[in-house]
Amino acid sequence: MKDNKVFVITGATGVGKTTIARYLQENYRMPRVITHTTRRPREREVNGIAYYFETDDSFENNHYLERVTYAGAKYGSSYEGLDRAWQKSQYITIVLDTAGAITYAQELGSRAIIIFVTVTSPSVLVDRVQVRGDDPHAVKQRVASPEFLRDMKLPQNLKGRAYELVNDDWSKTKTRLDLLVTDIMHGRRLPKKQLE
């Protein structure tokens, strides 16, 4: 169990966190940690795949590393969710904001591999988010939010701890990810935190 690792993908909206997590899931068979929510399932969302859909009471039965209330619903990632994913594989993934990534680093120590994803030019992020079909007004609100601005830079608590990955060019990003995953799986720790 102590050799189990969770690859925590963090950074601002639009940097490619979900794409990176999906790449790790598809190419390295790393299951995604399923998180919990009290919000109602959307059409086609399946319990235990999209989220663990909880009632207010059942939500409180889990032991959370981090949790938040957003738009009246509770969301959280739990030790139970981690354990279920680790039963499938020694290496798993989760996408978190930087506040969640700090918590994972503090709570899980060396079992949490933190990858902070960024881009060279922040204006690229607005374009990326709009391309994926998000409402332009909502995009403007999101990129002006304190959470977006917070997630744009590597938090002090993760300096020297997180691997920084500049995702300007997807083919270069995949090469850097492959090197990192191979080193972690072979018990090596990359000496340099900037993945170049």
UniProtKB/TrEMBL annotation:
EC number(s) given by UniProt: 2.7.4.8
GO molecular function: GMP kinase activity
Keywords of the record: Kinase, Transferase
InterPro entries: AAA+_ATPase, GK/Ca_channel_bsu, Guanylate_kin-like_dom, P-loop_NTPase
Guanylate kinase-like domain boundaries: 4-182
Keyword Transferase: yes
One family name in Pfam for this protein: Guanylate_kin
Stored PROSITE patterns: GUANYLATE_KINASE_2
Catalytic reactions of this protein: GMP + ATP = GDP + ADP
Keyword Transmembrane applies: no
Family: Belongs to the guanylate kinase family.
Function per UniProt: Essential for recycling GMP and indirectly, cGMP.
Protein name in UniProt: Guanylate kinase
Organism encoding this protein: Leuconostoc citreum (strain KM20)
Gene: gmk1
